[in-house]
């Protein structure tokens, strides 16, 4: 049985935690996504011993694109029907269809790391974070590990018209990733929980949880559809959809604190901002 390895991106370079040792790598970040067997490489590579402050970890991304999937949980389907103005049948059909919904989410420059800011649009009136298991894809098309994704979304814009989804999903600081990539060739157990806590003025204003077993589609299925007509020379990240959707009576506000936990990956914390000018 293989033991997962945590891969962090720190200001001084890639850093790993494994059972027998922790330390920095000599490898370039993007080259890690191009290896045939990353877990085997990290299991045996010599590490540079140097003090590391994991509180300063960055988003675990280099030149990788971020893609996302929608309506992969029943709860997400129902929420989309609720928010949609006349497009309810559209989401029912997506949930039931053989082909999943997959869309482009973000370039690396639009991704925030742990402790960094994520944005709500100034032209949106209903905004939510979407906590999602996110898999890391190698340049060879293999799922090499998992991280936590925060898919920031404008429900008011997408709800007005499903064709507005690119505007509801893709903008500056529209995604969070981190705190690390759990490198493992073994899929996470279906019993794995995703939990989200949103705090406002230090008080919990929303709590939700779900399990991976609630997801209709597997990461492998989503990967296979994505790769039908796409190549990723330096790999990619794929958000797998959310099973936690706050109700219509909740919308994010500036300074909210969003905490998403998936064990054994860790917790991703982001802070909400809005650019009013």
Short characterization:
This protein is α+β, with helices and mostly antiparallel strands and 277 residues long. The protein is built from 7 helices and 17 strands.
The end-to-end distance, rounded to whole angstroms, is: 53 Å
Count the DSSP helices. Answer: 7
Number of domains: 2
CATH architecture name of the largest domain: Alpha-Beta Complex
Low-confidence segments, given as residue ranges, are: none
Structural class: alpha+beta
Describe the structure.
This protein has 277 residues and is an alpha+beta fold. The protein has 2 domains: 5-56, no CATH class; 65-273, Fumarylacetoacetate hydrolase, domain 2, CATH 3.90.850. 18% of the residues lie in helices and 34% in strands. It contains 7 helices and 17 strands. The strands form 3 sheets. Strands 1, 2, 3, 4, 5, 6, 9, 10, 12 and 15 form a 10-stranded mixed sheet that branches. A hairpin with a 2-residue loop joins strand 1 and strand 2.
Characteristic terms for this protein:
277 residues, alpha+beta, Fumarylacetoacetate hydrolase, domain 2, 2 domains, 5-stranded mixed beta sheet, 18% helix
